[in-house]
């Protein structure tokens, strides 16, 4: 007969297990903040008798490209339990190997940090803005160990600490393992703090800004309106670790615009000019990042599990993970009353034009566009690339496909919509935290809307690069979709004029009049249709006298030699989205259900 463990013994074993765990202990201080330096130490004990491999990350949660964080680390030293110096060797640019220790290693270094955004860190006399992979070294093979970190804050600057890490005491915090630690950004500053209890859990906002309390209150009310509307989409707030979620917002002149999701927090930064009202600052980013609380952080692609801190992370699901999140970004602002119905509808044209008219669809479908993330996600390269013709952002691509799927579902029987499909994805993959693949999304859609519908949508728009019939889809909700400037002549690629010289604002757009005429980004355009660019400030001043199909001459200089090309003008391909004032009552009702969410 199986014996049941008595409760007191079970509690005793749990206590012993927790005490037996060896802690990794970090300490960080900011004495030289004025020069953007932090002093950091990490102490490892109970080590195995072999070389300790200490590294800086090359990637960061929410980013997919490589970022060489080790470049800002210097003054490295390592000592044993007696304070004796240890030998350090460098097997590669990202790693320090430490040998000859006695089971304890104290690893110390100085970090230079001066970019305040979602990827990097910034230390100065206004704050210590810490993205953890950009800040803290870690050791291979010890990622399972719990972590304690003590922040030596600048009391003379009235600094406080905001983070999703678990607070232990005073300025010491806890993470259950290395991954949670590296996924837990920190803002240390004299910030405003606001909070609201939602479904028994605390939603907090730490806002570093010179704005007034009244302005912060107004801003927080918008943040919470977004929070409540997004909970309606997914049906419930996730069970947050430690019962809290925190917005780490830094809207200061020294910050850089960005947003980055984490499991129970997000970084949102903006270099807001002090004379601009706080009200609209990064509010779209707030909306985007909070959707990630469900979609990405818990409804998570299998391709990102486990997240690799040493190599680039490639995922074919970003059209859904980032793209559908982008679709909800604007829709939630409309539902929360932060954008008007007209503003939201007319704003859809931007992404639609970008995707609909982009030649990149001839090269990659949305899955393959997602694979490009390691090359484009804040990645840097010196050699020129041809992304003007080959790459469509998976954010925008996925966003317009999310729109198409939502409007398509709403035309089916049974009051179907994307909100309820996302609830299903949450229940199947997010709440139980089961990673998914593209085929899982397809099969879930088949369960929700039927196999024929799901197969057709994925075969045409996900595994291929066809475009949905947006004109028909928009008509169903009383929105007009058509050319913005019918009959307007266009060269197909924008030209910037400076000091009488015209330069393409990127590579010539494939299939455009300039591309077909053999004109490229390195060329200096001198005249169009016989008119010198010295005499105009905008190309439209010249093209207004012509129609699509007209032939004109363009004179340009390439590497000092002058050339003339014959160019056949095309029609401006830009589309617009506008409310149809003559829409039927049925279309207006469907539009209300779409834009207002759950209507009783």
State the end-to-end distance: 56 Å
Radius of gyration (Å) = 27 Å
Strand content: 25-35%
Secondary structure: number of strands: 30
What would the average pLDDT be, to the nearest integer? 96
Question: Going across the major beta sheet, what is the strand order?
Answer: 4-7-2-1-11-14-13
Query: What level of helicity do the residues show?
Result: 25-40%
Question: Can you tell me the residue ranges where pLDDT is under 50 for at least 5 consecutive residues?
Answer: 1-7, 10-18
Counted by DSSP, the helix tally is 19
Largest sheet at a glance? Answer: 7 strands, mixed
Summarize the structure.
With 600 residues, the protein is of the alpha+beta class.
């Amino acid at each position: 007969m199986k014996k049941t463990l008595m409760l007191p013994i079970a509690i005793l074993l749990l206590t012993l297990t927790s005490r037996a765990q060896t802690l990794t202990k970090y300490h960080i201080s900011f004495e030289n903040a004025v020069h953007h330096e932090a002093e950091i130490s990490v102490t490892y004990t109970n080590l195995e008798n072999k070389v300790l491999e200490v590294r800086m990350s090359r990637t960061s949660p929410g980013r997919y490209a490589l970022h060489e964080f080790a470049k800002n680390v210097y003054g490295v030293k390592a000592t044993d339990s007696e304070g004796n110096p240890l030998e350090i060797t460098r097997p590669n640019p990202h790693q320090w190997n430490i040998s000859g220790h006695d089971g304890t290693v104290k690893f110390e270094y100085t970090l230079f940090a001066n970019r305040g955004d979602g990827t990097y860190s910034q230390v100065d006399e206004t704050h210590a803005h810490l993205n953890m992979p950009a800040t803290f070294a870690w050791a291979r093979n010890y990622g399972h160990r719990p972590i304690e970190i003590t922040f030596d804050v600048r009391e003379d600057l009235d600094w406080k600490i905001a983070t999703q890490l678990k607070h232990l005491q005073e300025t010491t915090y806890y993470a259950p393992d290395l991954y949670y630690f590296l996924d837990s950004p920190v803002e240390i500053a004299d910030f405003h703090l606001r909070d609201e209890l939602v479904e028994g859990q605390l939603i907090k906002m730490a806002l570093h800004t010179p704005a007034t309390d009244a302005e912060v209150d107004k801003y927080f009310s918008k943040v919470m309106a977004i929070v409540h509307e997004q909970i309606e989409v997914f049906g419930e707030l996730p069970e947050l670790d430690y019962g809290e979620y925190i917005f780490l917002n830094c809207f200061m002149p020294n910050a850089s615009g960005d947003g980055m999701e984490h499991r129970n927090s997000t970084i949102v930064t903006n270099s807001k000019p002090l004379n601009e009202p706080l009200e609209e600052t990064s509010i779209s980013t707030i909306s985007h990042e909070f959707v990630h609380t469900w979609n990405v952080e818990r409804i998570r692609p299998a391709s990102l599990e486990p997240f690799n801190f040493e190599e680039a992370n490639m995922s074919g699901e970003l059209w859904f993970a980032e793209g559908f999140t982008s679709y909800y970004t604007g829709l939630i602002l409309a539902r929360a009353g932060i954008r008007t119905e007209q503003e939201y509808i007319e704003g859809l044209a931007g992404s639609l034009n970008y995707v609909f008219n982009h030649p990149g669809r001839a090269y990659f479908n949305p899955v393959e566009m997602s694979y490009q993330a390691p090359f484009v996600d804040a990645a840097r390269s010196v050699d020129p690339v041809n992304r003007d013709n080959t790459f469509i952002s998976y954010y925008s691509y996925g966003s317009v496909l999310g729109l198409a799927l939502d409007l398509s579902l709403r035309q089916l029987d049974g009051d179907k919509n994307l909100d309820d499909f996302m609830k299903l994805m949450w229940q199947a993959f997010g709440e139980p935290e089961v990673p998914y693949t593209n085929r899982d999304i397809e099969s879930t859609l088949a369960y929700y809307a039927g196999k024929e519908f799901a197969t057709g949508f994925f075969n045409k728009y996900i595994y291929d690069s066809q475009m949905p019939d947006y004109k028909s889809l928009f008509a169903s909700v009383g929105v007009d979709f058509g050319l913005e400037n019918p009959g307007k002549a266009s060269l197909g690629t924008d030209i910037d004029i400076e000091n009488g010289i015209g330069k393409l604002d990127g590579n010539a757009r494939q299939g455009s009049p300039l591309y077909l005429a053999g004109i490229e980004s390195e060329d200096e355009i001198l005249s169009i249709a016989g008119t010198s660019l010295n005499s105009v400030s905008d190309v439209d001043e010249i093209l207004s006298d012509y129609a699509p199909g007209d032939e004109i001459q363009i004179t340009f200089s390439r590497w000092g030699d002058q050339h003339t090309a014959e160019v056949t003008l095309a029609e401006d391909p830009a589309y617009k989205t506008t409310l149809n004032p003559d829409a039927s009552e049925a279309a207006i009702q469907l539009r209300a259900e779409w834009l207002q969410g759950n209507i009783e």
